[in-house]
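Re: your question about GNAT family N-acetyltransferase

S., sorry for the slow reply, the queue was backed up all week. Below is exactly what I fed in.
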Amino acid sequence: MERRKFTVAPYHPAYAEQTVKMWRDSKERAIGQKEIHSFENHVQFLKHILPEQHQIDLALLDGKVVGMIAYNEKEVSQLYIHVDCQGMGIGQALLDKAKEQSSGRLTLYTFEVNQNAQRFYEKHGFRVIGRGYENEENLPDLLYEWRRQP
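Result:
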């Protein structure tokens, strides 16, 4: 796959629908399950709820949303990459930004069924510290932690 240049920019509501479509497609592919919320509710969540406690950054390629991350100094809440753009360094760029802004420790959840995400997070220094069902999808999940090396 040709490596094309993407940019990382703060989320803007003008990208809401594009972001939600990419997010839903990526998540459905990763877990093999349809999104449980309506598209409209998902857009409202992105526009009004998620930004209250999280910085949201987008990866843009040719003006299109190809990735998104929502994070704060302690956790990564969401990280999704367009299904056709995985393996291009987008996830790493977004995750590196969250690490830079972190308190030196980040946690995140991923679904146990999402082995690609597990390999990605482990490659980038995260380790499993818990297991459970802390999600609306009622799927087993893994709690990961990353700590900045002294």
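Residues 16-31 form the longest helix (16 residues). The mean pLDDT is 92.

Happy to talk it through on Thursday.
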